[in-house]
Amino acid sequence: MEIFQYDFMLRALFASAIVGFICPLMGMFIVFKRLSLIGDSLSHIALSGICGATLFGVNPILGSLIASSLAAILIDRLRTSLKEYADLSIAIIMALGVGISGILISMSNVNFDLFSFMYGSIATVNKEDIVIIVLTALVTVFFIVLFFKELLFITFDEDNAKFSKIPVKFINTVFMVLVAASITITLRIVGVLLVSSLIAIPVATSIQIAKSFKNAMFYSILFGEVAIISGVIISFYFDLAPGGTIVIISVMELLIISLVSKIKNKHKAKINFKY
Question: Which residue among 19, 141, 166, 215 is the one 20 to 30 A from 99 at the CA level?
Fold first, then answer.
């Protein structure tokens, strides 16, 4: 196949496979924590980090990682202090990210490919990005495996987790930093404006058919991988923005699975009524 003859496409597919695994994996905890919009908030802050890194001649991914990690910790602190209005923390950070990005973009005179960061660009994934993506993925998987039970407890009942002497503050802080890292490594493929879709949509799709949390986690990763890899391949052959292509495929998966699930439930209801 022509796609395998280009080094940049091999890098893009490799990066996509890792991103398609990590984002839905983190997305499971994010969605059930009711923080689905955190991807939008941190991606806007990440854009400001990209602009800042460009101004100082630093790797844009590294700049976005630092900026989004600090923002993620701030969101967690605001979420705790504004418990009854936790969603405000996300809105505040998003507004801050948009403001800073606008200022830094004007200062840099847009001397970098802004469109590729907004909607993703498979051609921009380089070797440095691959190293950052792999390291981030390894740390994320290690953390989730090590603290899986604690994360599950905190996700569904944070107050009781505190009473059970689980280090909630520490786990939440590390988790939020890893969420920021997961969003950062996704920017090259999906882009700033669409990154949250890869976190939330595969999870929403998996919930339609899953019977347990682990089952939903498996399906969300499966749907994420199918969407991102097929999206990258289609965007290559039809010269489309990968981010938009991936999101459309993700939404199609959601619609198809939802339809199939409804048909199955109606069929079961008829059988139960009959007997």
Answer: 19
